[in-house]
Amino acid sequence: FVTNIRSLCTARTHVNYEVKEDVAVIRMNDPTSKVNTLSVQMQNEMIEVFNEVLANDAVQSAVLISSKPGCFIAGADINMIQACNTSEEVTKLSQEGQKMFARIEKSPKPIVAAINGPCLGGGLEFAIACQYRVATKSKKTVLGTPEVMLGLLPGAGGTQRLPKMVGIPGAFDMMLTGRNIRADKAKKMGLVHQLVDPLGPGLKSPEERTIEYLEEVAIQCAKGIVNKKISLTKEKGMMQKVQDYVMGIEFVRQQIYKTVTAKVMKMSKGLYPAPLKIIESVKAGLEQGPDSGYLAEAQNFGKLAMTSESNALIGLYHGQVACKKNRFGVPERPVKNLAILGAGLMGAGIAQVTVDKGIHTVLKDTTVEGLSRGQQQVYKGLNDKTKKKTITSFERDFTLASLTGQLDYSGFEKADMVIEAVFEDLNIKHRVIKEVEAVIPPHCIFATNTSALPIKDIAAASIRPEKVIGMHYFSPVDKMQLLEIITTDKTSKDTTASAVAVGLKQGKVIIVVGDGPGFYTTRCLAPMLAEAVRLLQEGVDPKKLDALTTGFGFPVGAATLADEVGIDVAAHVAEDLGKAFGSRFGGGNVEVLKTMVEKGFKGRKSGKGCYVYTPGLKSKDVNPDIEDVLEKYKLTPNPLVSSDSDVQYRLVSRFVNEAVMCLQEGILNGPVEGDIGAVFGLGFPPCLGGPFRFVDTFGANKLVEKMRRYEEVYGNHFTPCQLLLDHAKDSSKRFHK
Amino acid sequence: MASMLMNSLRCCPPVNPAWAVQYATRSLSTSVQLHAQVQTKSKKTLAKPGVKNIVLVEGVRTPFLLSGTTYADLMPHDLARAALQGLLHKTSLPKDAVDYIIYGTVIQEVKTSNVAREASLGAGFSDKIPSHTVTMACISSNVAMTTGVGLITAGQCDTIVAGGVEFMSDVPIRHSRKMRKTMLALNRAKTLGQRLSLIGSIRMAHLTPELPAVAEFSTAETMGHSADRLAAAFGVTRLEQDEFALRSHTLAKQAQDAGLLSDVISFKVPGRDTVAKDNGIRPSSMEQLAKLKPAFIKPHGTVTAANSSFLTDGASAVLIMSEEKALAMGYKPKAYLRDFVFVSQDPKDQLLLGPAYGTPKVLARAGLTMDDIDVFEFHEAFAGQIMANLKALDSDWFAQTYMGRKVKVGAPAMEKFNLWGGSLSLGHPFGATGCRLVTTVAHRLLKEGGQYGLVAACAAGGQVTHYTNTSSYFNVMDRKVILPVCVSGPCDGDRSIPPVEQDSGRTEMMQEKTVYAYTQSGVTPTLSDCTY
């Protein structure tokens, strides 16, 4: 009680504590946000409280807990790092964090971290500095070090403590992948000591009571540690002892560093500095002792924070957060019944990401075979989750109960939204829209999933164009995060709000763009693919082409991408957009693609494209039969613009120029959505942060300079757009602040 | 003629002296008593116009024994047979006077999947009596009874034997799916070569047996784990649970010593001794109970082996009749079965919370308040579960948030609650507990002189059931039968149909029934060919 008054007097807003018997319960709560972050304020108050707890003789131990039901600490405050101008400043931030956690670690009064909800980044480093960790077994409780995804490293002792806690391989896995670890896995790894089950309804709401229960258990643990009922030195199992022994051999450790480094280099092509710095910091700590380790960590953290890669990745993070919000407001009616037309790869994929979100989903196809294939796809998606134990077989069955497969339009009178994913043919789309509008209720939204047909052309057949919208999903729908929503000038705001709401429910990152041939994503990709075809015609081997594109940072090479998208689709799009945009979209000869389609080389789905795909075989060989095709359309390369680097920039500059033009023409709402769309939908190199961030970092003038050089050889394919020229002229102009 | 003679004989059955005295005093003081009740109770009868009165005539059970003890070598239907024979013996019921027999069970013995049929044939009931088996986890015998009530209400039957049996000393343990698949393929194999190749495909992994699942199918959570979480959700402490467990054992011991558990029949187990008493009642001390470690959630859980119900073998049986029939046959019924409710809720977080949801509902149906009830018998799956339900009933917040009620109904008064022990101490043979609860309510009403009783049970399968997918719940309203009143009383005498007409109607029904009852009577059941 006394402490309550005291805490009131000091007017702390983020951290408070109360003494229960002899245990100090330290509660964190950032009143300004939904999540707790280790901001300056939070850290300062924490140090204050920690000093008081240490000085308080009535306190024997402490429990660290968040008062927010769904979040422990989501990480350090990124803005704090971004506010720094030099690497020295960031290094200092890191060292302050290290110092604070070192004090926690050496605290004479044991501190138990009671974790419910995300415990990430700085939050995890805080938790592992505590003597004991209790976590709820909730699905929301995840532990992890996602710093690497922001181009950083765990900079507050994480690289030093984790290897000791979970072993060298486990620590590398956590820090290099940045993946979230669920509570039960964390227990197995030794990251947390004890698990607490989430509770259901009782005398308080489940969330409130669960956190209370967690606190009760944590207090018991704290007392147990003090009266020596709980030992902090865990008895090591045989396997653990063997592992420790092996890791004690320097040769083995060196081998691990070598293997991990090689793997990182293979995966990242050396384009991402953070993983290498993580390895370096861990190595410094283990081989040269903690002092060097902590110093290396802080210095590397400082260095990384100043890299363009980190800047790009943080930009993507912010962009992603922004694209997970519905800027069109709450729709008038939530979509509860969704109907999907066409049970192909796309349609079934959309069903797959919808059916488990509490939306009743109708999947309609015209044939029994098509429908069964689609239903099987949805089942398989859920069953794979069951096999991985992320859901139970009961949850799978329960989810599937929300899916209705059918061949007719029965029940469409209850649909709140229809998404059509039928064949990309304007006439078919028109027929479908007429059929559907005859059976759906007036409020029902008609969304069309097309990758290139302008929405207004499709909407032309509609009797209520304000309810028509484009929803462009990316294949495979359950893996690709992006959803591109296309509005026409007639689409109503509520229709857009509703489409975004559905997309967000489906877990998508959403960009909303204006209507036009190819919208944004397809339009950017088309010139790049045209250039890729030209390169093939100029005699660049598909493997070489892939190597050059992945070497630039694309996750999938250009030739493989064409195969994945489908050569027929690519041909289709190239022809359509070629007609719409004229010679600017030229480059490679469309006939190359068309001939390939004629020969049955439609890409991965047909087993042959640029490559030959053998089921069950991971490696693929170049399709020997395309050589004849390429021979037929052979072009002579100009050595002036055919170096490896030139090839890369020829591909990328056309992509980027088109993106900038989309912004110039108002197709894009802003550069943030442009970057997000390019990275999440098309695999634009994440380390470059998207086409707009790339222009900012690389320099518009340098890019224009290169393009002019290519323009001389190839003409208007490489003519920079006006907005890009403006940026080139005035270096103070930037897309991102 | 013979049956008429039997009937008239049964008009004055041998009554035990205590009963006779009570009966006499009741008869004498009826009007006064009734008067007093009218003032204190919100309702004086629960009879509904146009609905037949249904009565519990008698209820018996075998002693409930810890699994693996004296019953170890029996089969489930042997236990059920014992209960049925006990019922026959106690009621002197003619073996052909029953219209239908229904049994409840949870873990089914595959050889006797319709255990009701095997047990009734084995107990010597007429082979003309159809019988079926029902299952609904821990409330299986409640379902058997309510099925019977339904049959009587629908005019299908007048005399029903309902019961339940559970035999945990032996449970079906299967070959693995792989092995079963191989064995079935072996059946179809035509050549020696095919057979040899199938046999050759058997690997070590094939030999791993498949035990009955210990977890809820839908949630993969064991019952005890769920109970522990439920207790935590309601803030039930370990101390509260241990105290309740100790109470249950202490009260059961007292009741056993005082001879109150008169529903227990003695049973000569073939090849073993005669058992006449439940063997799981073990009053201990709080210190002893406190020593136990949590059984499910370790190390901070509160549910232990001692505050949970244990694996039990046992069977029960009740005789349910329409009131007219019972009186016509000269029985003195023990209680009316008035109303019941089944409810279900979330199988994960509210698995064992049925009683909290069902009690207000059944009270509302009957138009009663908690105070009107004289006798409560709640199934004690876990002490923590009972305490959680009591707390839920006593919480306005819970009533408002989860039950859509304005106020709570309140928790039952402990001085009316499970006074003769409960499942924690007497044992809990899953399928048989429901009948024990109903019989106990009737016996307690008679003994304590109350009017209304209430039974509640959650369908929780203890630790070994793999069955429950929803938590359900059952409730019976019993009203003490005061014979003179019930024959001539204004509220109970609503019999617009003259007896003769009723009888002729019944004959028709009987005829109809013989037409439809093809499943079991189609062939003359002999012991050899009824294992279909």
TrEMBL record, chain A:
Q: Identify the residues that the record assigns to the 3-hydroxyacyl-CoA dehydrogenase NAD binding domain, covering every copy.
A: 338-515
- Extract the CDD domains matched here: crotonase-like
Which coarse location class describes where this protein primarily resides? mitochondrion
Pfam families in the record, alphabetically?
3HCDH, 3HCDH_N, ECH_1
Reactions listed under catalytic activity: 1'-[1,2-di-(9Z,12Z-octadecadienoyl)-sn-glycero-3-phospho]-3'-[1-(9Z,12Z-octadecadienoyl)-sn-glycero-3-phospho]-glycerol + hexadecanoyl-CoA = 1'-[1,2-di-(9Z,12Z-octadecadienoyl)-sn-glycero-3-phospho]-3'-[1-(9Z,12Z-octadecadienoyl)-2-hexadecanoyl-sn-glycero-3-phospho]-glycerol + CoA; (3S)-3-hydroxydodecanoyl-CoA + NAD(+) = 3-oxododecanoyl-CoA + NADH + H(+); a 4-saturated-(3S)-3-hydroxyacyl-CoA = a (3E)-enoyl-CoA + H2O; (3S)-hydroxyoctanoyl-CoA = (2E)-octenoyl-CoA + H2O
Q: Which family does it belong to?
A: In the N-terminal section; belongs to the enoyl-CoA hydratase/isomerase family.
PANTHER family on file: TRIFUNCTIONAL ENZYME SUBUNIT ALPHA, TRIFUNCTIONAL ENZYME SUBUNIT ALPHA, MITOCHONDRIAL
| Protein known as | Trifunctional enzyme subunit alpha, mitochondrial
TrEMBL record, chain B:
Q: Does the keyword Lipid metabolism apply?
A: yes
Q: Which GO terms describe its biological process?
A: fatty acid beta-oxidation
Indicate where this protein resides in the cell: Endoplasmic reticulum; Mitochondrion inner membrane; Mitochondrion outer membrane
> A Pfam family name for this chain?
Thiolase_C
Listed EC numbers: 2.3.1.155, 2.3.1.16
- Pathway listed: Lipid metabolism; fatty acid beta-oxidation
Entry similarity comment = Belongs to the thiolase-like superfamily. Thiolase family.
Q: Please give the name of this protein.
A: Trifunctional enzyme subunit beta, mitochondrial
Question: Which organism is this protein's natural source?
Answer: Oncorhynchus kisutch
